[in-house]
Amino acid sequence: MQTGRSTGAFGGVRRSKRRQDEPVAIASTPSPDHLRLLVKVARMYHERGLRQPEIASQLNLSQPRVSRLLKEAVARGVVRTVVVSPDGVHAEMEEALVEQYDLRDAVVVDTDGVGPDVIPALAAATATYLDATLKGGDVIGISSWSATLLEAVNAMRAKTVPVAEEVVQIVGGSGSPEVQLHATRLTSRLAELTGARPVFAPSAALVHSRELRDLLSKEPAMAEVMKSWSRLTLALLGIGTLEPSPLLRRSGNAIEPADQRQLEELGAVGDVCTRYFDADGRPVEADFDDRIIGISPDQLRAVERRIGVAGGESKIAAIRGAVRGGWVNILITDVEVARALLNRGTRLR
User: What is d(CA 338, CA 93) in angstroms, rounded to the nearest whole number?
Assistant: First the structure.
């Protein structure tokens, strides 16, 4: 069967029977006239912003041919896509972190200060990330004693429809009365914003004996919380150092100085949910491990998305250990920490 043809602009041939989605055949040595047409079409589309039907009309080409010419322009390198990151966006650094530490995702933010001054920027980034990624049906675990997570939750916007089923404390949420409100508010506020049911852990994170831990774990309310840890789809985590945060210290859940000295001798650099690890992320077994009421390392690693939120130079070793050991697989941190993790000109600690 003969295929109908007609002559188009610049002496080109228009094939009316060819499908638009067929691969573009590229001649090894295109004629100057063909290249001239290729550039003209590409400039009209990409620089002048004309739509394909308008280009076809002006040049007396079929729209399918315009589409093929645009694809050929990309294939030949006439058109190249360049993504320019605005100031404050560190996409290349985020991609490098994901690749180097086998992360699921990374967010790197600029901050206005050091130490505690990085918290507002990290909190804002965390709130934005959760707003974009919570889609529905999640069971969210949250560590109870993080000032950064509390500020992040305070910065979140309420969802118009429920995006989570439960928000569960994954480490004991009871503490001294003057700071108990922080742990309770962190869980209840996140549940309110996401339309979820709050699930509180009615116990301290660190109790006085293994026998007391076993006894409290058998209490119906606490047993129900611990059962829910196996249903988590997302964990929202702070990353701590050997030096307890002011909030944790005031809560009464901080480790004792003697325990801290033991951890130093064992090579610990940080913790997630009071589970300590060394510089390579390997768990460090301390004497107080059997007094912790909180999610176990194996239960935590079984959670699909484990979002670690931490920054500041003092936490570089702890953050590095957390990502090396798989304690978190999504990291939200500041640009100086990111540079240190990638060994890009920041002094390692």
Answer: 7
Residues 115 and 66 grouped into a single domain: no
Last residue within a domain, chosen from 18, 41, 75: 75
85 located within any domain: no
Give the count of beta carbons closer than 10 Å to the beta carbon of residue 7: 10
Read off the DSSP letter of residue 99: H
Mean pLDDT of 23-47: 81
Give the tens place of pLDDT for each residue, 164-214: 999 999 998 676 666 667 778 899 999 999 999 999 999 888 899 999 999
Q: CA-to-CA distance for 315 and 294, rounded, in angstroms?
A: 22
Q: Are 178 and 271 in contact (CB under 8 A)?
A: no
DSSP annotation of 76: T
- Partners of 166 in the beta sheet? 139, 197
**79 and 46 Cβ atoms separated by less than 8 Å:** yes
DSSP state for residue 102 in the 8-state scheme: T
Q: Is 9:41 a contact under the CB 8 Å cutoff?
A: no
Mean pLDDT of the chain: 86
116-125 pLDDT, tens digit each: 689 999 999 9
Cα–Cα distance, 117 to 108 (Å, whole number): 16
Among the listed residues 233, 259, 240, the one whose alpha carbon sits nearest the alpha carbon of residue 147: 240
Residue 125 has which token pair?
Answer: 């980034």
What is the model's pLDDT at position 45? Answer: 95
In terms of domains, do 34 and 172 share one?
A: no
CA dihedral of residues 169, 170, 174, 178 (deg, nearest 10): -70
User: Which region holds residue 311: left if phi is over 0, alpha if psi is between -120 and 50, else beta?
Assistant: beta
In a domain, 84, yes or no: no
Residues 6+ apart with CB under 8 A from 107: 94, 125, 129, 330, 331, 332, 333
Is the pTM for the entire model greater than 0.70?
yes
Reported as half-sphere exposure (CB side, CA atoms, 13 A), residue 9 has a value of 18
Strands 268-272 and 275-278: antiparallel
**Number of residues assigned to the chain:** 349
